Amino acid sequence: MSDNSLIGVFDSGIGGLTVLEQLVKMFPHESFLYIADQGHCPYGTKTPEEIGDRVEKITLYLLSRKVKAIVIACNTASVRIARARAVTDIPVISVIDPTCAKAVGTTKNRKIAVLATESTIKSGVYQNMLIKSGVTPVPLACSEFVDYLENGGAVSGEKIVRYKLSQIKDCGMDTLIHGCTHFSLLEDEMKKVLGDINYIACGQPTGEYLKQILTQKNLVTGFTGNGTVEIYTTGDASRAEKTISWFKPAHSPLKRIEVE
Ligand code: DGL
């Protein structure tokens, strides 16, 4: 059995495209519909209720487009995954569990830094999972990285990263979780401060998990050609296009949609 429907993927902005890039590589025959909810970005400084409302609205929109599965390519929104699962029975996948599991399997000294938005750090979700696995978390809220990236990097990324990471650089962790999907875009700058530790991004572990789910539920596409990638924003499409020049997979021109 197979299913040729779209896979829905969303984030508050461009960060989730780091996940989508991996998914397109891992699933070349699948077709994806991506929503950057830039009309409501950033999520990371909103209340849990406000974030939950966006999760529910975007899920309902994706369901109207008949997607077969949804990947929440945003950690802040993944914390509120229950709001998506409350309105659908199709698989809804969080980036948090697979990314955390990969980091736990990677660390040798059992000390892991978690860089995430204010809201994700406040929720304690990563810290609790790491402590349960016998790992010491070193949490750091970095919501300002999101503003920097969404604004096309108007100032020096290295300066912002160096300033923030100075707070944790001597903590002795051997692994760092990009607990916000935007943050892997700053990995080169982070390496200049923290050196050659393990950097764990959400894309690959989430893709591995998606593979298991699609297989288990007979949802793998039967299509053998190249899948398509549609990208939508709830913000300004021409502005968004300028900030995603690094996103290489072939995709339709960015279009604006309303999701209210
Ligand atoms: N990319 C999102 C995440 O993974 C959050 C960005 C935001 O604050 O909107 O958490």
Layout of helices and strands:
Elements: E1 7-11, H1 17-26, E2 32-36, H2 48-64, E3 69-72, H3 75-78, H4 82-85, E4 92-94, H5 96-106, E5 111-116, H6 118-123, H7 125-132, E6 136-141, H8 143-150, H9 157-165, E7 175-178, H10 187-194, E8 198-200, H11 203-216, E9 229-233, H12 237-242, E10 255-256
Parallel strand pairs: 1-2, 1-3, 2-9, 3-4, 5-6, 5-7, 7-8, 9-10
Helix pairs in contact: 1-11, 5-7, 5-11, 9-10
The protein binds D-glutamic acid.
The site of D-glutamic acid has 18 residues, from helix 3 and helix 8.
Overall strand count: 10
pLDDT below 50 for ≥5 consecutive residues: which ranges?
Answer: none
Largest sheet: 6 strands, parallel
* Ligand types: D-glutamic acid
Number of helices: 12
- What order do the SSEs take from the amino end to the carboxyl end, as H and E? EHEHEHHEHEHHEHHEHEHEHE
Backbone CA Rg: 17 Å
Average per-residue pLDDT, rounded, comes to 97
